[in-house]
Amino acid sequence: MAIAVYPSYLPQILQSGYTLKTAPNMLRTQMSDGYTRQRVINSGKPAELSVNMSMSGAEYNAFMSWINKNAAGGAGWFKINALTSDTANGAPGSQTVRIQNGAISAALSWRSDTETRWKISFTLDVAVAPLPLADAGSGSGDFEKIAVWKKIEE
């Protein structure tokens, strides 16, 4: 099944509250003497992206309908334009994401006689490209790609 693409007719991610957090991919072991041992445990670097959107009630209903139909209520992966640490030249690029635990928060931003605006907040898991690892065998500095989440043999 193809990965769904977030539609352009729905509101996009706001800069306000935009937070990228990478999870450690290292294991630290306290030694009885000397420095703590630290080693890479996998080649992927999981990332979380906390985001906000501003929507009217109608847009929120359309957003939730799209998420439920095309992204399994947030559990499924989809593509959306977002900045991450590997986005070239600071422009948003298409990132593959899913909503953590399907949890979406809607808070009332403001209300007038004609319109109501909602601040929608959620955290995304970002599928991150694998880290390049130096090829120690050739000594040429070439890089090889290791599959995301593949455990490195010790």
Topology (SSEs and partners):
Blueprint lengths: L3 E2 L13 E4 L3 E4 L7 E4 L6 E10 H14 L7 E5 L10 E19 L4 E11 L5 E3 L8 E3 L9
Parallel strand pairs: 1-6
Antiparallel strand pairs: 2-5, 3-4, 5-8, 6-7, 7-8, 9-10
Offer a concise description of the structure.
This protein has about 150 residues and is mainly beta. The chain is built from 1 helix and 10 strands, in the order E-E-E-E-E-H-E-E-E-E-E.
Amount of beta strand: 35-45%
Biggest beta sheet summary: 6 strands, mixed
Q: What is the count of DSSP helices, taking H or I runs of 4+ residues?
A: 1
Instruction: Name the shape in a single word.
Output: elongated
Low-confidence segments, given as residue ranges, are: 130-154
Topology as H/E string?
Answer: EEEEEHEEEEE
Q: Can you tell me the number of structural domains?
A: 1
Strand order of the largest sheet: 1-6-7-8-5-2
Helix content: under 10%
The Cα radius of gyration reads 20 Å
How many β-strand stretches? 10
* Structural class designation: mainly beta
Mean pLDDT: 78
**Ends distance:** 35 Å
What features would you describe in this structure?
This protein has about 150 residues and is mainly beta. A hairpin with a 7-residue loop joins strand 3 and strand 4 (about 35-40). It starts with a strand and ends in a 9-residue tail after the last strand. About 10% of the residues lie in helices and about 40% in strands. It is elongated and about 70 Å long. The strands form three sheets. Strands 1-6-7-8-5-2 form a six-stranded mixed beta sheet. Residues about 130-154 have low confidence and may be disordered. The protein has one domain (about 5-145).
